[in-house]
Amino acid sequence: MKNVRIAELKARLSEHLRAVRRGHPLTVLDRETPVARIVPCESDASVLTVRKPVPGSAPSKISLPPPMRIGKDIVALLLEDRSRDR
């Protein structure tokens, strides 16, 4: 199995993918640490197909709950919380 660093993979992605397609797995390294393995797909492997959503089911059609009424200045609370972290 061949090891390749992220920068080299980005620079020569097509070449590396052709090698994987020919059956040569690839290990991706972040510096010296393995972070991913690229292997050829099996011919009978199911591939996820991304499709357009069914008309009328888009997330923009979902109604949102009404805003909460808390009677506090949200920005002041956020600034107070952030000041404690420093």
Considering the chains and any ligands shown, give keywords for the structure.
alpha+beta; YefM-like fold; 3-stranded mixed sheet; 3 helices; flat
The poorly predicted ranges are none
Quickly give the structural class. Answer: alpha+beta
Strand content: 15-25%
CATH class of the domain at 2-38: Alpha Beta
Helix content: 25-40%
The profile of the biggest β sheet is: 3 strands, mixed
Kindly report the spatial arrangement of strands forming the biggest sheet.
1-2-3
- Summarize the helix and strand pattern as letters: EHHEEH
Describe it.
The chain is an alpha+beta fold and 86 residues long. It has a domain at 2-38: YefM-like fold (3-Layer(aba) Sandwich). It has helices spanning 6-11, 13-21, 74-84; strands spanning 2-5, 26-30, 33-38. Strands 1-2-3 form a three-stranded mixed beta sheet. The protein is flat. The mean pLDDT is 85.
Write the layout of secondary structure elements.
Blueprint: E1 2-5, H1 6-11, H2 13-21, E2 26-30, E3 33-38, H3 74-84
Parallel strand pairs: 1-2
Antiparallel strand pairs: 2-3
Provide a compact summary of the structure.
The chain has about 90 residues and is an alpha+beta fold.
